[in-house]
Amino acid sequence: MYGGGYIYEDSGRSRQQEEQLQDDPVKLAAFEARIARGEKIEPGDWMPVEYRRQLIRLIEQHAHSEIIGALPEGTWITRAPGFKRKLALIAKVQDEIGHGQLLYNAAETLGKSREAMINDLLSGKSKYSNVFNYPAETWADVTVIGFLIDAAAIVNQVANAKGSYGPYCRALERICYEESFHLKQGHDAFIELATGTAAQKAMLQDALNRWWQPIMHFFGPPDKVSSHSEKLMQWKVKMASNDDMRNQFLEAYVPKIWELGLTLPDTLLKKNQETGKWEYSDPDWDLFFEVIKGNGPCNKERLNVRKWAEEHGSWIRKALMREEERERTALPVA
Amino acid sequence: MNESLDPRVNRLRLNNSDGSFSVEEGENWNVFEVFHQEKRGAHHEHVGCVHAPDANLALIFAKEQFGRRKKCVNLWVVRSADILAFDLEDEDMFANNPDKTYRDASGFKVMDKINKFKAQSK
């Protein structure tokens, strides 16, 4: 998992635009020409202030999403049905934490320290993918997350892997490889419930009904209301629009849900054969922003668990480090 | 008392944290670059980095992060701070490498000369 298409942006765009004006126009033109030629940008390269800021925001939130995203699934490790499912879930949750590490490293190459990112998460300044503010109530929820949330994340991550920033692309390459296992094991567990007993089917249908709206929220608000992203598209920071990614997801996965005899809680959901695009009822975007602000069912628990882990791990992190070996700034090179 | 679905979370005394905890700068240790060897005889290749308090623990974290699936026979770690690299802006110093045909087998057309010689000696 778990890079959602939607990246939270706090207000204050006017300040950025002032910074933007300070970029050397000659360097900016050369930078944009490199991206247009398909070249990758590396940590030591000149880059516009706004490019750096947006990438830190994007990669950092992606990293937080991986770490927080492991929490609803981790809940079910002790109660996974059977040894094979338990092994797969442990492996998947470990992968997600590993993805968080890879992404933090990629963000660090842009100059923001690991500690600053963790502190911004704990204080609520940095966000993470909104879907993880919902609880995984039953085992069927875990199969819906493993199959459909991972599938949605893959749509986004495969797109982002073709972006312009080298360290982020390299991290995503490894992540996408591991995600293919996540998707497959999720699909497998999903099919087992869908083709199982009446009780299993009912449990899965219930989970699907509850998760459908968060899944539709996953790629972010529709393009018509989404803030301007032409510059980010030109700089290959954002690789596809929210609606395009949502459509790509629906095209690939709705048939896989319907073929198992399951239904989705949206009577308007259908593919328009003329345009080739999927049509659906607009999910509740007010609710989406309400949850981002911290008022979802699990926001407080997720952050409290992270805070607990950081607080209780602090003494051993300090005990393990010899002060004379501590570097003033510890940042990865690539 | 928490009201989580997770029994492990309910066992934590979460509400005791005062909500203002923050990590100190440098608390996440130093950074080490990781090099992965896929099979004996192959080069070690750079695959990423880990945070660790020392090289020994960096190796253990590297095994978890980069050696948990697929082939791996060995890993190296080295402090990121110890890596010396050229500035990316200086990459033009390599720009005329492809022009140095005198350093390359393709720069020497022996068959042309042999064929010319054979044609002349007939």
TrEMBL record, chain A:
One GO term in the molecular function aspect is: phenylacetyl-CoA 1,2-epoxidase activity
Superkingdom, taxonomy of origin: Bacteria
Is the keyword Oxidoreductase in the record? Answer: yes
Look up keyword GTP-binding and say if it applies: no
Q: What is its EC number?
A: 1.14.13.149
Keyword annotations: Oxidoreductase
Pfam families referenced in this protein's UniProt entry, alphabetically:
PaaA_PaaC
What InterPro entries is this protein classified in? Aromatic_CoA_ox/epox, Ferritin-like, Ferritin-like_SF, PaaA, PaaA_PaaC
| Record's protein name | 1,2-phenylacetyl-CoA epoxidase subunit A
Originating species? Chitinophaga rhizophila
From TrEMBL, chain B:
Judging by the UniProt lineage, the source's domain of life is Bacteria
| Pfam families registered for this protein in UniProt | PaaB
Name this polypeptide is given: 1,2-phenylacetyl-CoA epoxidase subunit B
**Species assigned in the record:** Chitinophaga rhizophila
